[in-house]
Design goal:
single chain, alpha+beta, 2,3-Dihydroxybiphenyl 1,2-Dioxygenase, domain 1, 2 domains, 9-stranded mixed β-sheet, 8-stranded mixed β-sheet, 5 helices, 19 strands, about 20% helix, globular, binds 3-methylcatechol, binds fe (iii) ion
Length: about 300
């Protein structure tokens, strides 16, 4: 059975391009890459042409998630499963594929309306090695594990689980948590060694709650933390270690209001269900209203 292999790229609608250019480079160390298009710029993490398309203008939120499949045959097979399940999708045009720097794609939405693209054949710019936006000790951990993970809105987590399973992801509820509005039972799903590539079950006002990016070196997480603190950026959850992916992370506000979770040292995905009611340590809430879970 053909499955998605990684969260390959993400499109974001942003209201303040200049704030984002500074934030991406100076805080996270991402490479800001401009191809002279007036309505967008790109963020790079590795040899990929881009991992993020930053669409200037519009509401500050997720524009689309790009989930990779191996090739055209794999895309046809997944599309066949969508047909069987009566899930509508649209084939991307040649121009739309070129716009994303991929060889082919289809466009659809998950059960909560989060835009999804399934693609194959990304442009890997081997002549353009990653050039970090600020000094870095190591790299971003990408490769077969994709760009990181997203926590997205789900009106009906059971329907979302069914949808992402159809794409080939696996996973399940991994926490029972307390929140100001009652119990949350978030679901975490994976499609490669990354412990999760998508999570849902904690809803806010936007489609996107957070994106998690991971460094290969602890020192780069420490540097990011220093920059966030020195710039006085709102921290939603302080440094701490998750019980499921065992990553050391912290969460802070992006110029779009949703959160960036930066991390280091995560464990691999696993296929037997277990659950947690607390994290290993830390992740204390600091600025509320952004990720109101009691970890
Ligand atoms: C995560 O990455 C996360 O964002 C939450 C809320 C819980 C466990 C792992
Ligand atoms: Fe996360």
């Amino acid at each position: 059975m053909s499955k998605v292999t990684e969260l390959g790229y993400v499109g974001l609608n942003i209201s303040d391009g200049d704030a984002w250019r500074r934030f991406a480079a100076d805080v996270a160390g991402l490479e800001v890459f401009d191809e002279g298009e007036p309505d967008r710029f790109y963020l790079r993490m590795d040899y990929w042409h881009h991992r993020f398309v930053m669409h200037i203008g519009g509401e500050d939120d997720l524009a689309y998630m790009g989930w990779r499949v191996a090739d055209q045959d794999a895309l046809d097979e997944v599309a066949g499963r969508l047909n069987t399940a009566n899930i509508p999708y649209r084939a991307g045009t040649v121009q739309e594929a070129a716009e994303r720097r991929v060889l082919g794609l289809i466009k659809l939405a998950d059960p909560s309306g989060n835009p999804v693209e399934l693609f194959y054949g990304p442009l890997i710019a081997m002549d353009m090695p990653f050039h970090p936006g600020r000094r870095m000790h190591g790299k971003f951990k990408t490769g077969e594990e994709g760009l990181g993970h997203v926590l997205v809105h789900a009106d009906d987590p059971v329907a979302s689980h069914r949808f992402y399973k159809l794409l080939g992801l696996e996973g399940f509820i991994q926490y029972h948590l307390n929140t100001p509005i009652g119990r949350a039972e978030p679901t975490f799903m994976h499609c490669n060694d990354r412990q999760h590539s998508i999570a849902f079950g904690v809803n806010g006002t936007k489609r996107l709650n957070h994106i998690m990016l991971e460094y290969t070196e602890l020192n780069d997480l420490g540097k990011a933390h220093d920059v966030v603190r020195s710039q006085g950026i709102d921290v939603a959850l302080q440094l701490g270690k998750h019980s499921n992916d065992e990553a050391l992370t912290f969460y802070f506000a992006t110029p779009s209001g949703w959160l960036l979770e930066l991390g280091w040292g995560s464990a691999k995905s696993f296929s037997q269900q277990q659950y947690h009611t607390n994290d290993v340590f830390g992740h204390g809430s600091e600025v509320s209203g952004m990720l109101d879970v009691d970890l």
